[in-house]
Amino acid sequence: MCDKIQPLLETEHQDFMKVRNFIKSDVQRLYIKDAQGNAMVDKRQLEKILLLNYVCNVEAEYQQGFHEMLLLFRLLVEKEHEIYWLFQFFLQKTENSCIVNIGVEKNLAMLKRLIALMDPIFAKHLEEKGHVVQFLFPWFCLFFQRVFKSFDDVWRLWEVFLTGMPCRNFQVIVAYTMLQMVRDQILQKDMGGDDIVMLCHNLIDLDANELISKACTTHELLMKYQEKGPPELQEFFSHPQ
After folding, report:
1. CB–CB of 106/97 below 8 Å?
2. Cα(138)–Cα(7) distance, integer angstroms
3. Could you read off the pLDDT of 107-122 as tens digits, one per residue?
4. Predicted TM-score of the model (pTM)
5. Less packed terminus of the chain by CB within 10 Å, N or C?
């Protein structure tokens, strides 16, 4: 069906050809071979699914990183419709939090307010060093895909996001927890904005279970602020539906 309607899409969607070329370029850069050098997935299949996702979700547009996320779903299931709907389900359950023009800005704003509430000293330092928090957007765009050592770790965290527990927007608490890992180093060395961002983006090879455990502890601490927490953070204190 995708092949049959493509001429129509090229006519109806002004940026269709440009987006298709972006997708093709991104997918071609993926390394998808096993230890023996055999291709694990069909790149053409990934291109078609990403293009269909763009056509069906024009508001969300296509963004770099979707190809890496889709690859993980392809490693879970093989049939095209299963991959497509699994990706749609993930976006829906996470409230499109990884989409730049829908959820990422919201996540960054909530992260900034969360730091100000729970760690004013650190918040002041980050504020003085520029718009540091805004440059942490790759964490949310890829939903922390690049901070782990293995696919199993990525999927372990994503499973937690899909449960909706322990609260809505748990990804913001995960990001705050990661910042706390480097907090003391940043303050002791009085790091500037560029150095802080580089340090944060160098947080890799993390253990998912350990990060989830620390984030849950952060959530428990946050519950003590329920009475004085700003309205924008009340989602953290409500039970998921």
Report:
1. yes
2. 34
3. 999 999 999 989 999 9
4. 0.86
5. C
Question: Quick count: other Cβ atoms within 10 Å of Cβ 40?
Answer: 12
Tokens 């690859």 — which residue? 71
Q: Please tell me whether residue 78 adopts helix, strand or coil conformation.
A: coil
For residues 18 and 51, the answer to whether their CB atoms sit within 8 Å is no
Report all structural domains of the chain as residue ranges with CATH numbers, in order of start.
Answer: 2-93 (1.10.8), 100-237 (1.10.472.80)
DSSP assignment of 121-155 equals HHHHHHHHT-STGGGGHHHHHTTTGGGBSSHHHHH
Q: What is the pLDDT of residues 49-91, one digit of tens each?
A: 998 888 877 666 788 889 988 988 988 888 889 999 999 999 8
Q: Which residue has tokens 């909706």? A: 164
Q: Is 28 helix (H, G, I), strand (E, B) or coil?
A: helix
